[in-house]
Amino acid sequence: MTAYPRENSGELAAFERIMSQCERGVLRVALRLLNNPQDAQDAAQEVFLRLYKHLGDLDAARGYEPWLYRVTVNVCRDIARGRRCSVALAEVPDPPAPQPDAYHDAARAQQREFVRRGLSCLGEKERAALVLRDVEGLSTREVAGILGSSENTVRSQICSARLKLRDFTGRMMRKRT
To answer: CB of 90 within 8 A of CB of 44?
Structure first.
């Protein structure tokens, strides 16, 4: 097993490199899982403290990204349990569109709000699987490794989450019309 270098041979440089490459991604996942900027900042800080502490133990051949995702999800779970309130996905900004009309803007904003509210109704594991797979774009295998589940379990959680989200947004759309 090839470990990342120890402190006396460049561990600080390796830590800084990993942090600069992954800081935004860790914060983005934490924000989507916690829907609270301060909690997301706290989670990201804890993730990078753990990275620094365990950097020498990580297997460089396997990469650090799966480990960071797993730690981020676990830290967010701990924070969410600690505050005992509903956890939702933060609003994901839309890519800029070429001068959409006001109706399009309103419809997209309404759709994002329905999705955000629907995600808050999902269970912790379904939400994490859906965020990692559909929002972060990880493979089912990667999500399973991060969450400590089988690929079949992850597929089931994602399918269930998508159905629940579709039903919730459908109900909300019917209420608005």
So the answer is: no
Length in residues, the chain: 177
**Dist. CA 138–CA 123, nearest whole Å:** 20
Report the top-level CATH class of 92-177: mainly alpha
pLDDT (average), residues 129-143: 89
| Residue ranges per structural domain of the chain | 1-87, 92-177
pTM above 0.70, yes or no: no
- Alpha-carbon Rg for the chain, nearest whole angstrom, is 18
Q: pLDDT tens digit string along 24-74?
A: 999 999 988 888 888 999 999 999 999 888 888 877 777 788 889 999 999
How far apart (Å, rounded) are the C-alpha atoms in residues 78 and 124? 11
Name the phi and psi angles at 31, rounded to 5: -65, -40
How far lies 11's CA from each of 5, 56, 58, in Å?
Answer: 5, 7, 12
CA-CA distances (angstroms) from residue 80 to 30, 33, 38, 169?
11, 9, 12, 24
